[in-house]
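Box S1 | Example of a co-folding query
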Amino acid sequence: MIRCDRTAAWAALKGHFEAHGRDFDLREAFARDPARFATLSFEAPGVFADLSKNLLDAATIHFLIDMARECGLEAQRDAMFAGEAINTTEDRAVLHTALRAPRGQGPHSAEVHAVLDAMLSWVEAVRDTAVSGIRHVVNIGIGGSDLGPQMMVPALDAYVHPGLQFHFVSNVDGHDISAVLRRLKPAETLFIVASKTFTTQETMANAQLARAWFEAEGGTDIARHFVATTTNVEAAAAFGITTTFGFWDWVGGRFSLWSAIGLPIAAAIGADHFRELLAGAHAMDRHFVEAPLAANLPVLLGLLDVWYRNFHGATSRSVAPYHQGLRRLPAYLQQLEMESNGKRVDRAGEVLPYATSPVVWGEPGTNGQHAYFQMLHQGTDLIPVEFILVRRPTFGSAGLDADLLSRLERQQTLLLANGLAQSQALMCGKTAEQALADKPLPTSTQADAATLSRHRSFPGNRPSTTLLLDRLTPHSLGALIALYEHRVFTSGGLWGINSFDQWGVELGKVLCRDLLPRLAAGGATADLDASTAGLIARLRA
Ligand code: F6P
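Box S1 (continued) | Returned holo structure for 6-O-phosphono-beta-D-fructofuranose
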């Protein structure tokens, strides 16, 4: 395995960037090549991708793919799927793909399907609300034990059991859990304590608080109202939880929604739909393994990420899902990408001479348009934008009359037009001359027409990718998330980093344990830095 900067293709890309990349103009590229959209759009299971509005040409793709080959991307991918211990700092395999492999295929199939069968039959009993009496499901977990289910349950709202409400408690800030508990009754509530390690401070504090609340409010039968999803079955038992669905150390937290951590998703959408979710992800796994690199969507997206980060110098990527159900997708992707690829040393521990993970951020469209899109259009930074459009809506139609339904359909068209218009505006821009020709001219007593036209012009040539789903279903959502996982694998693989550990979260945890007693009255602060000591003094006052 060679690191990207040590490949011949890296040097070729540097030259290509200077000659054709830095001044690449999207508008000219479309004018030159009427087939650009056809050549640069790609089909993967459940997802159509238009890459044509990106700052690249055939030569860019050619050199990027050469670089992937030189970095041994295919061998790295095969090692992951084969269960080699590619997480070298923790000596672990990385096998979330095994969680969605059909029965009898993939490593650990017997254990995976035993847990899957058990959890799915258990959720069906919970979903029989007339018998179970459950009306509220509260997932207590953080990071990978929270963000996946928290992202997916609203995304699949059209499939969610109408008699169940889902709540997600993650923050150690008591405002989080107290706002949820206020609305609950013990007899109607199921708590899922979700933690891979079952040691995470926030989750343990919230789980203990939930149990104290349950008992104080007269709840009985903890065994029926608390369930755990964890690799640490002994710790869950010590907590007093008798129903536990396990998983394994070869499932990373941020890749765990396909495991028992997906229990709230399964409870929301039911066993059959949960299996469809897994099948969608598996279809994307097959695409990642089988499609040639030049038509392999996760590979192409990962390569584009390297192109923008290391050659164009983009420090962030904005994700704009044009579907309100995907409102938590940017937060989910922040953990997936930034915890995976926010690394500064290579696998051998050598400090990297180039940048890795960009900042990933965003909000659903159209809300973002009325907030930060100003910066995307006229700010000083190059920020590639990723539009996610869903062609057909899945409004729960029950109880809505025909007139309301057709209004909703019109709003869907309005939504899609907005998404398309934004990517078009980013690319096309508007010259000062065009702005000057606008009628009627806006008036200002302080700026003449020429000055105003400069404020009202757009440079354009700002890149975007559009991912298009036909409908947001368990299958297409599973495929979309697996697409992102493999894209992160691709860029991490080229950067030569370990995308599967997260040592960067440890120091703060240790220091928090040290500071906790110091916050109490009389706690020692003299040996601390002056800022921390000063803040503690103010907090104690
Ligand atoms: O602190 C980071 C982290 O370890 C994440 O990687 C993980 O998803 C999260 O905490 C929660 O961990 P656990 O599932 O063990 O509670």
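Residues 142-145, 195-197, 200, 203, 253-254, 339, 502, 505 surround 6-O-phosphono-beta-D-fructofuranose (CB under 6 Å). The chain is about 50% helix and 10% strand.
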